[in-house]
Design a protein that fits this description.
It contains eight helices and five strands. By secondary structure, the chain is α/β, with parallel strands linked by helices. The chain has a five-stranded parallel β-sheet with strand order 3-2-1-4-5, sandwiched between helices. Helix 6 packs across helix 7 and helix 7 packs across helix 8. The longest helix has 15 residues.
Length: about 230
């Protein structure tokens, strides 16, 4: 299958790109600049495309992102510390983000005669992100079948949708993903903060999978406190 991967530059989507490159024809990577405070992730997506020797395109939708106010990722709102599953993490929701990304990606795929669009949504995102759940991916596929009826037949490939972050680390390791060259932290500093939901989830995933974590965190031990607070 000729597959276009939606790649943020994070651990999940870079692992997906390596997975696709091993089993499909990787048509290229598509990334989105929506004004996210952690836009440095886009540089890691570009690095992934360079390593895999495929085209990479960054779509500028900052004007759209500026209208999606109220999120800690696009607005003047602090990114909370803690585990992803905590209610406080709902402030990181960007409404319709994946729906917007995928609608654009399907259009690009149809124009380029690709067969598949791949997205790295996963089970750990189900707590707070409605457009990462199986019901969303199934409904989106149905919508695209209608939108492209008679023009293109493109499948949505979401192999991680029911898997954990630790499962993704396992899969990424199998396919040679360079984890050190991925970016997760929502705060977008020079180093991974180690305290935000994505950092805690990343740190926990490496621990659960048994694979060494090459990430340089400002606070490498905070994840243990976050897990303890969650279990109380």
């Amino acid at each position: 299958m000729k597959t276009l991967v939606v790649c943020s530059g994070g651990l999940d989507s870079v692992s997906l790109a390596y997975k696709v490159a091993a089993g499909h024809k990787l048509a290229g990577l598509l990334s989105f600049d929506y004004g996210q405070r952690h836009s440095k992730e886009l540089g890691f997506a570009a690095l992934c495309a360079e390593r895999l020797s495929v085209p990479h395109r960054i779509i500028d939708i900052r004007e759209i992102g500026s209208g999606l106010s109220g999120s800690a990722l696009t607005d003047n709102v602090d990114v909370p510390d803690g585990h992803y599953a905590e209610d406080t993490m709902k402030v990181t929701v960007v409404p319709n983000r994946n729906a917007i990304f995928l609608a654009i990606a399907f259009g690009f795929a149809a124009a380029r005669r690709a067969d598949t669009v791949a997205t790295a949504v996963h089970g750990g995102d189900h707590f707070i992100y409605p457009d990462c759940r199986p019901a969303f991916t199934e409904a989106f596929q149905m919508m695209q079948d209608r939108a492209l009826d008679g023009y293109a037949n493109i499948r949505l490939y979401a192999p991680y949708v029911n898997l954990t972050k630790a499962d993704i680390v396992d899969d990424g390791a199998r396919h040679g993903t360079p984890f050190a060259e991925t970016w997760s932290c929502y705060k977008g500093g020079e180093r991974h903060c180690g305290r935000c939901g994505t950092c805690v989830e990343r740190r926990e995933a490496f621990h659960l999978s048994g694979h060494p974590d090459p990430t340089d965190y400002e606070d490498a031990d905070f994840w243990l406190d976050a897990l303890r607070r969650r279990s109380v």
